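Q: How would the structure tokens look for this protein?
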Amino acid sequence: MTTRETTDGTRAVAGLLLAAGGGRRLGGRPKALLPHRGRPLVEHAVRVLREGGCATVHVVLGARSDEVRARASLDGCVLVDNPQWEQGMGTSLRAGLDSLAGSPARAALVALVDQPGIGPEAVARVLGAYDGENALVSAAYAGVRGHPVLFGAAHWAGIAATATGDRGARAYLKEHAAAVRLVECGDVARPFDIDTEADLAHLE
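A: Here is the predicted structure in token form.
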């Protein structure tokens, strides 16, 4: 691997898309399969990561994973099955980070499948703040931490150890708040979630 490949964020940082949720408040419709612009939402989320600069994308699947694989075009992605997805997002984050172990990636840029208002501009800003495997970077909206977030490889073990339930990396980020670099993205993205029937109005 050349020096440029080691330091260039587009190669050193892998996109990690958490797309395992079962959509409990959406009548049990997996969020990855929600229609958006004529295709499953997971395809849109992968495209955002790639257009934002992530050359490699790992996608964590859970609810109805076989159907997601059959219906969504995820060519070129590393697909990761999380059989414990019902226990919360923390299990998906751990599965995703585990899938990156041993890979060339020195950081993971984590995005959620149910945030279609966050586009490649926000991904590119967070990716641009990568400066090595000790990096801790988060998009911010009016100064409030949100997604996507970037975790250098030096933090993966600590994050995996504290990721429980639906909290994901929240506890780790709170404990290391002083080290987190916030990158304001409120001018280029809207960080809403698709959680309820009313939220479906955000989809196209």
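The CA atoms of residues 22 and 30 lie 4 Å apart.

The chain is about 30% helix and 20% strand.

Upvote if useful.
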